[in-house]
User: Fold these one by one.
Assistant:
Number 1:
Amino acid sequence: MTNPKLPKVAILATGGTIAGKAASSTATTGYVPGSATVADIVDSVPALAEIAEIVTEQVSNIGSEDMTDDIWEKLTEISQKYLDDDSIAGVVITHGTDTLEETGFLLNLVLSSDKPVILVGSMRPATAISADGPMNIIEAVKVAVCPEAKGKGVLAVMNDEIHGLRDVTKTNTTNVDTFQSRLFGALGMITGGTPYFFKQSVKPHTTQTEFSLQDVKDLPRVDIIYAHANQDSTLIDAAVAAGAKGIVYAGMGNGSIHKNAFSGLESAANKGVLVVRSSRTGSGLVVDSNSEWQNFINAGSLNPQKARVLLQLALKKTSDLEEARRIFETY
Ligand SMILES: NC(=O)C[C@H](N)C(=O)O
């Protein structure tokens, strides 16, 4: 779509339900994510041509439950290539919603630009009645050309809301209002087709971080172990045996550790594996509580999947406990 009078936006497509097709217009589950191309998506929303000159690139076409390190590496490089292009005003990335928060948090930490970068997905396939994808992509492009979106880090636009990728998480399996920033709230909203911003995160992102594209290469293995009643150390020992350099423990409450899992985590930490305590509750901070857990790092407000991303990047810089702790306190 060319209209050189309008700002130029790159739409990079990775797949997801926004590119999904179902057998019937009433089917909202059981569809195939990643079956429409970026060209199909853009062609099906002619109103985009009134907002921006659109250029597109297909990065992958997968359900985001199948996200890999290789696609992360490719996506970060391609995103930075467009951000470095003086003719581009902003970048929109279409993405499945299942791992959108992990990809987005990674981009928020490694991309270097103050241009808007917007992740967008949908909860209903493109073929569904009341599909949410077309309006979501229109609103994402509107935010991408909005001067106020500059310098706010990587953003997610869905369901008329603008969220920061550090804090947003998927909270519902199928509802269109699934993305919430539970602890700190949305950064803004889109009403009547206009983006309105009300706040921004104080945490460093994009141009302010110590991470770069180089850190996305050869990411170390980090496993998440989910806490539960009657737990033991079997899966923790298995993670270490599989070569994990880090473990995120999705603990109970304020990162509480089952006493029978503690011995496995302690022995992992003694072998140099960095262990982060996060929480399976879905909200709140994980802070110091039990004096026995001094060899572990607190995830603060990062949920287990976000803590995993930060721990992977931290491990590219250090294996020192205190230095990794500083990184978790910073971001
Ligand atoms: N709504 C969605 O996009 C879910 C889909 N499984 C995905 O993440 O690709």
Number 2:
Amino acid sequence: MLFHARMRVHLPHDLDQDAADRLKEQERQRAQELQRDGRWRHLWRVAGEYANISVFDVDSPDELHRLISQLPLFPYMDVEVTPLARHPSAISDDAVSDEPGS
Ligand SMILES: O=C(O)CC1=CCC(=O)O1
């Protein structure tokens, strides 16, 4: 099942810089693990915001909830999730090409 997620990060202003750097590094490592195992399909920065748009491919809403709620930055994120269904006009499973300009 595919899910679109918008995650906005709000780190507290009084959070120690080293603690913030550690959390970001842990988040990066977990995000890359999940990209490598195919569950975190897309990860895009929202231009001009400390936020990302992501697409997850997981077995269930429960799995997505577990995965997102265990992210190191989860305590500091607002997350909006939208379940995705196949569009009838889509010509492939992804309906997305990796070719620039297509
Ligand atoms: O920077 C973000 O948008 C939060 C985040 C998700 C994966 C990652 O490495 O950072």
